[in-house]
Amino acid sequence: MQLPWNALDCVLLDMDGTLLDLHFDNHFWLEHLPARYADKHGFTLQHAKAELYPLFAAQQGQLSWYCLDYWARELDLPIVGLKREIMHLISLRDDAAAFLQALQHSGKRVLLITNAHRDSLSLKLERVELAPYFERLISAHDYGFPKEQQAFWQALVSDTGIDPARSLFIDDSLPVLRSAQRFGVAQLLAVRQPDSQKGPKDTEEFAAVEDYRALLSGL
Question: What is the pTM of this model?
Fold first, then answer.
């Protein structure tokens, strides 16, 4: 995969499912949290999932879906503490380190932009040393809008001064990529296999990263 690196000044990278294996997040929301919810209420795991999954679906694409404070209030559970119980599952994708190191020496601006709540970001940083590779670590909660909304991108440009027309953005979420596309981000890449424990996904209209080392040519 040959990217027009000479035409790019800035690289915007998502975190979960893009740099970090999405297995941690999928396991937490689909298995671990329902199990703890079932324990709290004396439910079966199946009953807990039947109750929680529609609640999750109703919030997807909104900032509340990513807000740990919101779920702690809604479910009356210590969400950060429950995440910490399985934090050993947090891991960097095997192919991401070489890409991050190359970007670090490329002279380009490199920003992490994530919908993750700041508490979730802090937990990930305890396990994986991402901060040294980035000029900024930006949470959508800083702006009050998720990446699915145009207001996020407007706030990002206002805050950082990046030029979308000279930027590359990589994310595993197709709705987020479509939002970036509408805003005018020039180069967009999806992620073929965000979760190492699941198969490749259909990234539809977007070209997808299968191995970050394939992006190094010309960088």
Answer: 0.96
